[in-house]
Write a structure and sequence with these properties.
This protein is of the alpha/beta class. The protein has a domain of 120 residues: P-loop containing nucleotide triphosphate hydrolases (Rossmann fold), CATH 3.40.50.300. 42% of the residues lie in helices and 17% in strands. The chain contains eight helices and seven strands, in the order E-H-E-H-H-H-E-E-H-H-E-H-E-E-H. Strand 3 and strand 4 form a beta hairpin. The two termini are 14 Å apart. InterPro entries: P-loop_NTPase.
Length: 182
């Protein structure tokens, strides 16, 4: 596998630091691909959710009234993904994300779920699991991921060790640099 890899796929529990890891990789020329963007767009344009609700951790924790049902935003996004996968197969979300990629650029996929890591691995991606002791497992099945696809595990424990935010970020950055030979 070439280093640094052209494609990086990030797995991990919600709030484990995948988004921050993707931001760090952007400093090395990786473009972030929001593989959930089609689902977020549907939620905004057709279900009336706000950008903050579908893009931020805080927003995803909110409960909204939808068609007479009180439901958490994270669950809405997950159920949209479930519907696409049920109808078009488990690789539909990464397939939609990969269709417009420029083969000359480097990309990071910040929220790889279920069997999607296997899809990205077949595409030559380096699949990393971000583990944070402060981020427990999700109550939702759609937040799970197949650990058999993971090449390397990054322990994102800077905040758990009570490091200041910038030092915790630098710690995560150093671990990503080592794992990806950046």
């Amino acid at each position: 596998m070439p280093f640094p890899p052209r494609l990086v796929a990030l797995c991990g529990n919600p709030t484990s630091g995948k988004t921050e890891a993707a931001r760090i990789l952007a400093e090395f020329g990786y473009e972030l691909v929001d593989d959930g963007r089609p689902l977020r767009q549907i939620a905004i344009e057709y279900l009336g959710l706000t950008r903050d609700q579908v893009y931020t951790q805080e927003g995803k924790l909110e409960f909204v009234e939808l068609n007479g049902r009180r439901i958490q935003v994270r669950e809405i996004l997950g159920e949209l993904g479930n519907a696409f996968e049920e109808k078009f197969g488990g690789d539909i979300i990464p397939l939609m994300s990969s269709r417009l990629l420029d083969p000359a650029k480097r990309y990071v996929f910040g929220s790889v779920r279920r069997k999607q890591g296997l899809f990205w691995r077949k595409q030559g991606a380096r699949v990393l699991e971000i583990v944070n002791p402060l981020a427990g497992p999700s109550a939702f099945e759609f937040d799970s991921f197949d650990r058999s696809a993971v090449h390397s595990v990054i322990i994102n424990n800077g905040l758990a060790r009570h490091l200041p935010v910038e030092e915790a970020r630098a710690d995560l950055r150093a671990k990503l640099v080592r794992a990806l030979a950046l």
